[in-house]
């Protein structure tokens, strides 16, 4: 974990924050939590007697995701789904910057007050609520053709980490997986508003209740299996495959195994 202090910007690998934020952030200690797979850097800001804040920043490059996440957080909050509030957003010195509020509680995977059965039920309920939103009101298109095109752009830009592939795909190249993804493109899509990276460390719980979604940069209209695939994979990894069936029972519908595997394949590119 990297730590720094606002009075010494740039310390511990921390980029210097926007000049216009300095007065607001004076006195906050900056900490970079471990974990996460995003290309962006995330910092937790703490100060005695003041609200916890988070800063997210990434280089302003052609495939940057942070501007899209900012727009998605604002839209999602407007739908009544809990998520971090966008407090300020800017581009400065070749970087995108987002200042946001913290959600209460713990990520689902680490919540100390939940047994596995309750975790699985909360997981399913949160996705069921998100998937019930009106797709006609959602301006973000995450359907498979666009995602395959984006995957190809990331391969061409050298942004796909082949060493981070799932165990079953270790030793294969990104180009090889891209060819497989194109060949396995689902013939139809069961469209809903998806989170896009619905892993248990992107759902917050507080007091035994769902407290909101974080890391919403891939939110948009897509096949529900986009979320169910990552949820089922995560459940198997965290709590065991036996909990997948109860999760789907709480969610309220079965899943197509072929589409689950296809969307796990898609996830390798992001």
Automatic annotation (TrEMBL):
The keyword Transport does not apply. Gene3D superfamilies: 3.90.1200.10, Phosphorylase Kinase, domain 1. One of its GO terms (molecular function) is ATP binding. SUPFAM superfamilies: Protein kinase-like (PK-like) (SSF56112). Keywords: Antibiotic resistance, ATP-binding, Kinase, Magnesium, Metal-binding, Nucleotide-binding, Transferase. It catalyses: kanamycin A + ATP = kanamycin 3'-phosphate + ADP + H(+). It comes from the Bacteria. Residues 30-261 form the Aminoglycoside phosphotransferase domain. Signal peptide: none annotated. Belongs to the aminoglycoside phosphotransferase family. This is Aminoglycoside 3'-phosphotransferase. It comes from Rhodospirillum centenum (strain ATCC 51521 / SW). The gene is butA.
